[in-house]
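From the shared-data thread, chain only:
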Amino acid sequence: MKQLILTGLAWTIFLISGSALASEPGQDPLALKAVELCNNGKYDQAIATLSEGLKKRPNDAFLLYLRGKAYTAKGQYGPALADLNQAIRLNPQNGQAYFGRALVHVYQENYEEAVKDLETAHKYGYRDEDFLSLIKKKAEGKRKK
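Structure, as tokens:
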């Protein structure tokens, strides 16, 4: 049940952040296709589509970010972190990637790291004050234990 709720939260946030596609140069058809697949719950197909794109454009931070989000939705946090970390290395000012990585940290109950990433996401223009406040409270609660 917890995983179902978390997956729902991830995709709600993903769909909201999907509006950021409009800010991506040229609205990449590959990215749009992957988002559509994810919106229909076809995460494996989205991952395959993004992986094919990354063979041609291995340093595309946006495709890595999207694939990381798809892995997150599947609960595959290792590959998700690998993609999100690489997306951040390629574009260290991408607030979306920090937010995506924060979600993975939340799912892993690593709230301290999540707070750091949420604050960095905020610094680069990707804000969710309510979520940040919630995770800060969880981090404080975990520290007290």
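The domain at 2-144 is CATH 1.25.40.10 (Serine Threonine Protein Phosphatase 5, Tetratricopeptide repeat).
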